[in-house]
Design brief:
Blueprint: H1 2-9, H2 12-37, H3 47-58, H4 68-83, H5 92-105, H6 110-121, H7 128-131, H8 141-152, H9 175-178, H10 181-189
Length: 192
Amino acid sequence: AKIDDAFHAMNEKEIKNGWKKLKKILPYLMNVYDQQLNINKNDFLSNGPLYVTARFLSNKKSMNFTSDREQRAWMYFALLAWVHNRYSGSGGDYKLNIDFDKVDNEDNPIPGLVQNITFQRGQLDVLPSQIIGAKVGVKNQYYGIYLLSLKASGGINWKDGEKFFPPIPQKSLHNHHIFPSKLRDEVKELGG
């Protein structure tokens, strides 16, 4: 409700100014996601971390990260928020409001944002019980992190030796090429 209230309280000039900032920030931020995390499609991250990071950048005069360290910290936050479903489910807008308050009122909001995730989840570690039985697909945050780590480490297709993520994808990615069916069946037999 606070997000809606704030928007409705804005005058036309404020809305146009905000939109102008957003048109500069989003392409910059998507380029950072591409360069730092190998994320170049919206299939991966949820929008919440993007909104919070964009809010942080909109409060800065340069509307850019001022150091590599700052950029890495925000990418860390984005991945944590994603893997722990920070903004999904009920209360998503409420959590955005809490995180916007941190961004607006703290010089370095990352520790507070990470603490908010910890309060929500109880811990930052990903447990086997969270992964076992999870549906395999890009929308699954654990599978998505797995794909990103494959991408970052130059993973190759076991079947034909091609890179999974060439700069210009020539064909679609098949799950059974990442984790061979034979091994997948063996893991299922062991109770995984």
